[in-house]
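Bug #77: duplicate submission created two jobs. Keeping one. Sequence:
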Amino acid sequence: MNWLKILKYTFLIAISLISTESSAALFDVVPTDKSMQYLGLIFGGSVGVIGLGAGSNPLLSNMFEVFNFIIVTAGVAVLSYAGVVAAINTAREGEALGKKFSLWVPLRGLFGMLLMLPTPGTGYSVIQMTVMWLVLNGIGAANAVWNVVINQIASGVTSVGSFQVNIPTAQLMAITQPFLEAATCLASINRMTTLPLLQNNGPVQLNVQYLPPSIPQDPTSSNAQISQTAYINVGIPNTTFNNICGSFSISTFILKSDPTQTFNLPTLLRRLNIKVNAVQSMFNTFSGAATILAQPYNPLTDPVSPPLPTTGYSLTAAQNYKAQIAALAGGINVARGPQAAAWEANPLQINPNSSIAAMQRIGWIHAGSYYYTMVQASNGSLGESPNQLLPSALSSPPIPSQVGVNLMDPSQIPPSSQWSSNLFNALSTPVNRVIFNSALTRATTFWPTDQSYTPDSLPVFGTSGYSTGNSVLDSIISTVTSTIRDPILNFFTQGIINQTQDMLITAGNLGWSIMIAGESAFFIAIVLMIAIIIPLSIPPCLNPVGMVFSAASLMLYTVLFSFLLILWTTGAMLGVYLPLVPYLIFATTAIGWFMAVVEAIVGAPIIALAMVLPSGEELGQIKHGINILLNLFFRPTLMIFGFVIAGSLMNASAAMINYGFVAAVDQSVQPTLFNIVPVLGIYMFLMISLVNNAFSLIYELPNKIMGYMGAKGEAFTPGEMMKEARGGFDKGAEVGKEMVGKSIEAGKSVQEGARRAAYDI
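Kept job's structure:
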């Protein structure tokens, strides 16, 4: 193919960009999507043949018509210059286009000129329409990811934090014993590297065997059910030693009437694989303990038994199983395969509530408004009963306590009839059997202690035993600390440490409680002030202590109201500002994305002009422009990822901080009457910093990830907008303080006037 053909095909490709068919999106955007409508309000309802569904002002179209004519004129001048230089170089150097120019120069030049052409009937150029097409596909991609979150919420599964799997702890912990024994069996045998078994067949390992799925006679019936079982064997695959260390089974099923599952075999296999992976994870958790338990130990020759592992393996294994099995929540939907049977019906649709339907209509741009909807979903189901979610132990290695082995005497090793014949023969010698039985004995001894392990007790604020030397003052401080400071701080920290509630919900509840308490105390104090003013109005001859009491009360009210103001402001920060941070950051980041789109649309003709500039490289001067366009496409999707992950990151970080904060405050800060104020203040600013940093993932994740591919396009940081929003909040708080301060001064004036009137009588 010569260069003339290349130019011809390039021309055809460029012309095809103008066609209506080329504007079809790879990722569909629903007509009600708000981000597309907002773009319409900016660009006048359409860019070329791409409709945006809102707005009808042709001003920008007319402006771009003139602007694109200017760009085309500049492009013609540049292309003419490149043509003259290429002709001179060809004549002088005797080589087509000369040595400095490659075939890419005219190819890019022609392609760039075609991209500058206005689309039919509009002032927008082909490249501007192409950029908007890319932007809309970015919106569609973000909506596709956001809809995954929405579908999970519709199924009642929280998108932030941990989903609580309904499996009784006792049942789950009980199944950990055969897994520990199987893991110890595997580790013990694999240590005996000289065994003919291992040398001839390879190591003992986990292997999975899937049984054929069970299909009902009438799979079209509304009561039909399909099911499948898998065996997880611990042994040497494809040999008679396949389950030498134990075997487990796990099953799953799908009801045709279940609206959250696709009634087909690919979905069934996906559900089963989730369970198989959870079983494998539980087994692998015991590998560390099994390695220690399987240390070679012969009671006849080794006087001291190796130490047992630390505890906590069983609890961790159970938690790992629950964590992975939670992937079943909300249902699984997998597309039918090419060889699917006719009975494999399409999934029934979940009926979303009004909130979910609104989220789907609005699209990704307002995801920040629905953080609390994501948190509060709590009706999820795994689709099976607790018993059906757990694996079953089909076989396990022989345990000495079951067969009465005296480990001190090899002659007491049970006969092969009491063993698995494969295992008895595989161990080859009595010494190997003694060592093997020793490992399993230690596993059997270790498990009861291990499974009874409980996590460390949660730290709580406690009243310090520090004494001021005055028993009355100590009693007052102790009462204030135990009834005010500690309950407030424990209320905040314990919910986060226990992961029973989202941090922002906890902060909001605490903040509103503090605000209400401060406001109530303020009005109570006003009533008390009025009640005190009345007796102070009695002349000093009848009330000799009035003057002293009046002065003391003024000082007390100043301190009290200052305390209430600080407390109320702290509550307002926790109860009003902090819960709005996810929305504020997401909204300001989205505005930054709109600004980047505007820049790209205005600058798109410059990208086309850069293609015309002569350069020997394939892409010429447009590398940076391509990075900007990729940024536009991926940023909405990455914003959704950052938003969802930020909530979990925030809760995990808060739990970590609270463990240390409780101990630090309890050990270093002695209780006083008012030390709740600085402690709450420090904690408040720490949490505000944590929340802002966690949700900075919304914009930092796109900024950083695009840098992985060398993109140095628009890296938006909504710092100034957030500062202005925070400044407005602070100004509002200052106005509130000022109004309350004026009311205090007014109260003081009334009290002072009453006192003077009393003395003037």
